[in-house]
Every structure is written in C-alpha cells, then in structure tokens.
Design brief:
Layout (H helix, E strand, L loop, with lengths): L6 E3 L5 E4 L20 E6 L12 E6 L10 E3 L19 E3 L15 E9 L4 E10 L6 E5 L3 E8 L2 E5 L2 E5 L3 E5 L5 E5 L4 E8 L24 E3 L7 E10 L2 E9 L4 E6 L4 E4 L20 E6 L6 E13 L16 E8 L14 E4 L9 H9 L5 E13 L4 E2 L1 H5 L24
Parallel strand pairs: 9-17
Antiparallel strand pairs: 1-16, 2-19, 3-4, 4-19, 5-18, 6-24, 7-8, 7-26, 8-15, 10-13, 10-15, 11-12, 11-14, 13-20, 17-18, 21-22, 22-25, 23-24, 23-25
The protein binds fe (ii) ion.
Length: about 425
C-alpha cells in the first residue's frame, strides 16, 4: 500500500495540494465562489495570534462544510484515558511491562487504544499520554478526530493506513506518523491487524528540536518528513463521526464521508517519518552525551529548554567510545521517562524488556543497566561495535507519568522489576585503585 502513495516533502512547510486540477483558489483563501462549487474552511492548529514560526493552519476546499452532522451524544471507551490522571496516585516505583495481550475481539482503532500512563491535563493544553493501540478491523463506518491533542503513532507490528482530510498515508514499523489535533481520519490495518505505541500530546505541537552547536544538519532532516497529497471521497451513507473531547467520547450521525477535501493549502498537516533516516549523533571520543541527543521531535513548554514531551529514539548505531562504560549510565532524572521497544534488544536491559514491552522511570527514580549489562559493559573489549537491529524509543516529559488502573492491574506488569538490579554488588575496595 505505502509504496503507491504520493507525498509532499518537508516539515512545517506551507504545502498546497489538489486532487482535482484548479480546485485550489488562487490569490485568496476564501473567494466568494471557490472552484467546482466547493466550500472553503480553515482548520487552525494554533491560536490565531501564535508567533509566526508557531502558527499552523490549513485551508480546506471541501464538498460539504464540517458543521454538517447531527448532534453528538456520549459513549464509553474506558480504556483510553485522558489527563488529569486521577485513577491512581503518582508512583515513584520503577515499573516495567511485558507486551499487553490484546483482547480477542474485533477492534477498530477507536476501540483498541489502551492508556498506560499520562500526565498534565487536556483542559490545560499541557501534558501527554502514553498508550498502546491494537486494531484488527478498519474503521468502515466511522470517522474520528481527537479534540484533546495530536497523535504520534509508533507502529510495532503491521502497517497502518490513515485516510485523513489531507489525504492518505501509511506507516509501518520503523516509521512514525503524526495526526494533528482536530483532523478527521480513519486508521486501519493494511493486513489483518496492527499494533503499536501512541503518544497523545496535549501540549504545543511537535516540532523539530533546535540543533544548537550541532549546526545546521543532523538528527531528523526536514526533507525526510512526508505529508500526503489531497485525496477526497464523495460518499453518502449512515456514518458516525466520533471525537474524544476533554477525555470523553462522543459520536454523531453524519450522512456523508467527511474526508471530502478536494484541495488544501497550509502547514497544519499529518506527516510521517522513517526513523532509519535519523542522523544519529554520539560521541567519537569518550563518555555519553545525554539522551536528548537522540530527540526526533519535541513539544516545548513555555520555559526555554523544557519539554512537555520529547520523542527520542535509540536506533542501531556504532559504539566507539573509548575507556567508557558504554551502556546508558546510571541516572536519576528531572525528566520522567516512558520507554518502549519496537524491535531488537535495548542495551541497558538485554533481557526482560521485550519488543512491545514498556518501562516507566519517573522523576528522580533511580535506574540504569541491569546486573548483566553492568558486567558486560565493565568487562567488554572496547572495539568499535555496531549495535544492530534495534529500535527503542522514549516519551520523555517534564511531568511525572501517572499509570492508569489498567496498567497497574494488567498481568503484563512485571511484579519484581527491581529484581533485575538486585545482582549489582559492591565492588568497593579502598586499598585497590
Ligand atoms: Fe533513563
């Protein structure tokens, strides 16, 4: 599916795309009569008065305006939780989960999101949630938009096809996709099923991190971000329009497909990125840069340098540090870390952290390599070594992640995670330097 699709390249560009030649009005956004009898409608992704480099909007030229639907009424999806997270108390314990076993029942994307942890509050436009998603059927008769935040998909198994107001994109494991807040879409597996991780960002929209002394190049390159081209459907039937609004789910009858945008222009768009194109930077002498060196996307707070949430990856890479303990150092952080593993093995935790698993190390909670990894890291011969076929990631936030009741009670939660460090012994000998 993915290879047939066309994309526009760039990050936060002012793109324009038309599925029908000359559907895009020239010279103005909202002409008295847009071409082909289309309606003009703006979707804004920032305050109107946001600074220019943070200002995001897209003009749609669509068959019907978005307001054409019946009234919303509530329904329940109790496993997709939204901040504020008050079901459980904030918890200083290090936690780890084996992969969640999905229930054996038909689930589309909206049914299949389960929240593991989160922070902040959708109502305050700050914080984020870490979910897992499962889907084994397409969204055939319903369309979704998330009023509470943008959605960063991190597929682990199976390709996902997104049909959005801006067009169609597909992502497979090793790639990510971001669907903006408010954008209507359907997500479905291109095969039998798909699953992965999902970061819901209530804060400022993800952007590329500043590069500081790294310079003009490095990390994720803007030209590798892909945005779909306009594609519309002109369908009428009995459909449902679903939204998550301030944590609650609502649905409305709609008699047509809302994916009826014939042309669009703007920079508030869905996008995808192939993580294998990440230009990984690390030491070529000794020691470790902090893991921020692996930041792909960041959602900043108003405090310079302080992230609401960072999306960070630990990809295949060369390890060349001399006279250095090469696994991640032991640490206690200001920031809180939610980690997942897409494939392979994570160097600090060769065992017990399986692909599909998760770990949570909240602010100031101690963690680092397990006893095995410590022994290997201390005794290894320090030749250049390619750390291959691995892809771990982190949602790192300035606020503590509060686990959900589901995450605390699932049998996937490892009851003795601390046991992985118990083998670390004192090697102290004041007589031996
Ligand atoms: Fe950590």
């Amino acid at each position: 599916m993915g290879s047939e699709l066309k994309y526009l390249t760039g990050f936060n560009n002012h793109f324009e795309s038309e599925a029908l030649v000359a559907a895009l009005p020239h010279g103005q956004n909202s002409p008295q009569k847009p071409p082909f009898g289309l309606y003009a409608e703006q979707l804004s992704g920032s305050a109107f008065t946001a600074l220019r480099h943070e200002n995001q909007k897209t003009w749609f030229y669509r068959i019907r305006p978005s307001v054409l639907h019946e009234a919303f009424s509530p329904f329940k999806q109790d496993l997709w939780r939204t901040g504020p997270f008050i079901d459980e108390v904030p918890n200083p314990n290090q936690m780890r989960w084996d992969p969640i076993i999905p229930p054996k029942k038909p689930m589309d994307f909206v049914d299949g999101v389960m929240t593991i942890a989160g922070n902040g509050a959708a109502a305050h436009n700050m914080g984020c949630a870490a979910h897992v998603y499962f889907m084994n059927k397409p969204m055939t008769d319903r369309f979704f938009y998330n009023s509470d935040g943008e959605l960063l998909f991190v597929p682990r198994q199976g390709e996902v096809v997104f049909r959005t107001e801006c067009g169609v994109l597909s992502v497979k494991p090793g790639e990510i996709a971001v669907i903006p807040r408010g954008m209507k879409f359907q997500a479905g597996p291109s095969g039998d099923a798909a699953e992965g991780y999902l970061c819901e960002n209530y804060g400022s929209n993800f952007r590329l991190p500043g590069l500081g002394p790294i310079g003009a190049n490095g990390l994720a390159n803007p030209r590798h971000f892909l945005t779909p081209v306009a594609a519309y459907e002109d369908k009428t039937s009995k459909f449902k329009l679903v939204t998550k609004f301030q944590g609650r789910f609502w649905e409305a009858e709609i008699d047509h497909s809302p994916l009826d945008v014939v042309a669009w222009a703007g920079n508030y768009v869905p996008y995808k990125y192939d993580l294998s194109l990440f230009n990984t930077i690390n030491t070529v002498s000794f020691d470790h840069p902090d893991p921020s060196i692996f930041t792909v996307l960041t959602s900043p707070t108003q405090t310079p340098g302080l992230a609401n949430v960072d999306f960070v990856i630990f990809p295949s890479r060369w390890m060349v540090a001399e006279n250095t303990f090469r696994p991640p150092y032991y640490h206690r952080n200001y920031m809180s870390e939610f980690m997942g593993l897409i494939y392979g093995q994570y160097d600090a935790k060769p065992d017990g952290f399986a692909p599909g698993g998760m770990s949570l190390h909240n602010a100031m909670s101690a963690h680092g390599p397990d006893a095995d990894a410590f022994k290997k890291g201390t005794e290894a011969e320090l030749n250049p070594h390619y750390y291959e076929k691995t892809l771990a990631f982190m949602f790192e936030s300035n606020q503590v992640f509060i686990p959900t009741s589901f995450a605390m009670s699932t049998p996937s939660r490892q009851k003795d995670y601390l046991g992985s460090w118990r083998g670390l012994k004192s090697h102290f000998d004041p007589k031996k330097r």
